[in-house]
Every structure is written in structure tokens, then in C-alpha cells.
């Protein structure tokens, strides 16, 4: 009976597939969200492509242990960037749309002061970590990288600040100019180092910092955003930002700590060489992450703008369009990595990375679920409902750490990827329930109908 039922349904499925594909293609061609998001996705492709080419150079010319050191150092920088995004860049993206003229210039100046203070704290944090490693606690290979990052990390953060300020106002030409400049200088500098046989983790971080200095200096010279420094506004603006960012920071500490913590757990359990293998798999899948990060960079200001101009109805439209685009794009990429992920890794990085196909597939599936997290989470952020994001990120933290404790020691790199996937799926479930319940409470008939189905 079951077999007959499936057979009877097959013609209908075949007839409906072209219709679904036609609708999807029409949506991609005509959707205003897609056309506006393309520059952001292109920009993020440049950023991710630069990191990708950097990883290929390291993978071909350095040992897996050195790649592990680079990845651990970079994870610390990215963790600092994540905190910066929540306490400085995120609030600016939301509140800058509510100010004009002198008020906006003063607010921008306050952000620069906040950034300077945060950079000093980052320098102190890297110095403390270097002291801990020097005392024999942690991978001793990390010490030179940590010392260099004391000076390099604030420059990487400055580049992030200026590009996100331009991104907040959807000035994509400025963002593209910053990232093209960094990409050109960084890749040419690394190529020169490789040709002179001076390529190492330390010199890579120095080149990255130098490229960011040039790009940030150019941004300040062009002065695309007016700035005023009013001492009376610095603390006032911080307090207002903190009302929003405290929940975002708490969410970041709970949910986004694990991606930066897991490589360190893997290094302690299996050494920096295993971390290097995981870094290669993450970087390979992360190339497709350029789409997701580009959408994320675009969606926060777009959601804030939609809520301000069209209320919840417009925000719901933006959410539906973004989720459809994210799922279709990342779903196809997950299939590609399932079919050819290991072949791509071996072709690009060499035979040292054979056998990583399962890890790449798991990470690609996790990226698909993370796309749903990003779409729904940015919508909650724009509505200033960070409590729901905090609940989801607490779930991610707990589930990921429990899975990591059980899986990393026996399964190594694959266990790390599985722990990441488990946490991401759990967080997606919590955020999805939260957004459906919220829109259902607003009595929107379409959302209620979808939730009921």
C-alpha cells in the first residue's frame, strides 16, 4: 500500500518541481532584497576569499602545526571582533538611523572613543594570555603569535569598525574599497614573503595588520562620515548602547564562545596539528560562509530600516525573503561539499588532508542551520528582543559543550564538527520557536497560518 501511494504521487512531484524552480528563479531575479544584498555578499566574498587564499599559502608552505597556531591566534582575534560587533558596531547600526546631522556626528565620535578604550583592553588581554603561555600553561608554540597580536589585533579591529560604520549606512562602495585595498595589500605581501621564504605565522599577522592600517587611514582621510567629539555625550551614548548591547553581549558570550573555544579544546586533546586539520576544513566550508556573512552584514541595517519604515508587516516580508534565499543557497552548497568536499581539500592543500570529507560535510550542514540562526537572530535583534537570542545561545553553549566533552576525545576533528552541528541545530530550534510565537502574538494571519501548518 505504501509503495503504491508513493508511486501515485511521483508524477505530481515531477510536475511540481519545475514550478518550484521557476518561482525560485523569479524570486532571485525580481526580489528587491536580493538585488540590494548582492554588494554585501560580493564584499564578504572578497573578505572570505582573502582568508581562503591565505589558508592555501599556509597549507602548502607550512606544517599542520603552524596552521593550528595561526588558527588559534585568529580565533582570539575573531572573538574580540565578535565582542566589538555587539558592544560598538551593533548598537551603531541600529541607533545611527535614528540620528541626523550634528547628533549623528557626535554619536559617531563617541563610537571612536569607545573603540579606543576597547582596543586598550584587547592589548591587555593578549598580554595576559602571553604571560600565561610563557609560564607553561597552554601550547608553547603560541607565544610569538600572542606577542605580535598585542600590536596587530587593535589594527584589525580598527579596520572592522570603519567598514561596519559604512555598512550601517549601506554605503557599499566605501566597504568594497576598504576590503579590496586590504585584500590586494595582504595577498601581495604574503606572496612576497613566500617568494623570499619568510612566510610564517608571525609575518602573516604583521602583513594583515599593515594592510588594515593602510585601509583605515584611507577611510579617515576620505572622511565619509562626519564626526564630532563631545565629552558630555561619550558616557551618555555608552549607557544607551549598553541597554541594547548588554543582551547582545550576553548572547555572544553564551552562543558564540563555543566556535572559538572548540579549537582550543581540540588542541589540548590532540595537539596543534589536529587543530590545523580542523582549520583547513573550517576554512574550506567558510568560503561559502561569505554569502552568509554578507547577508548578516546586510540584514541587521535592513531589518532596522524595515521596522522603522514599515513596521512589523515589512519586517516579516524581509524575514521571509531572507530565509528563502539563505536556505536555497546554502542547501546547494551543502550538497556540493557532500559530493566533492574531500577532493577539493586534497586538490588545494595536498595529501596531508585526505580523509576529511566527513568533517567537511558535517560543517557544511551546520552552516545551513547557522544560516537560519542568522536570519531569525538578526530579526530579533532589530526588534530589540535580545532575550530570545540569549535563550537560544545558552542552548547552543550547553549542547555544544556537552557534545564536545563526549565527542572530541574519541573522535578528534570529526567529533569537533559534530559538536558544532549539535549546538547549531539546537539554537536554530529555540530561535524559530521564539520568532513564530512573537509574530503569532501580533495576530498576523500569514505567520499564524504558517505556524499552524
Descriptive overview:
The protein has 14 helices and no strands. It has one domain. Helix 2 packs antiparallel against helix 10 and helix 5 runs parallel beside helix 7. With 453 residues, it is an all-alpha fold. It is globular, with a radius of gyration of 23 Å.
Task: Tag the structure with descriptive keywords.
mainly alpha; single chain; 453 residues; disordered C terminus
Give me the secondary-structure topology.
Blueprint: H1 2-30, H2 32-61, H3 64-95, H4 101-134, H5 143-168, H6 172-195, H7 201-222, H8 231-255, H9 257-270, H10 272-286, H11 289-349, H12 357-382, H13 386-441, H14 445-452
In short:
The protein is mainly alpha-helical. It is 89% helix and 0% strand.
- Content of β-strand: under 5%
Task: Output the structural class.
Answer: mainly alpha
Rg computed from alpha carbons, rounded to a whole number of angstroms:
23 Å
Shape: globular
- Please tell me the total number of domains: 1
Helicity range of the residues? over 70%
What low-confidence regions span 5 or more consecutive residues with pLDDT below 50? 1-18, 27-31, 443-453
Distance between the termini: 26 Å
Sketch the topology as an H/E string, one letter per element. Answer: HHHHHHHHHHHHHH
Number of helices: 14
Biggest sheet statistics: none
- Mean pLDDT over the residues: 79
Tally the beta strands: 0
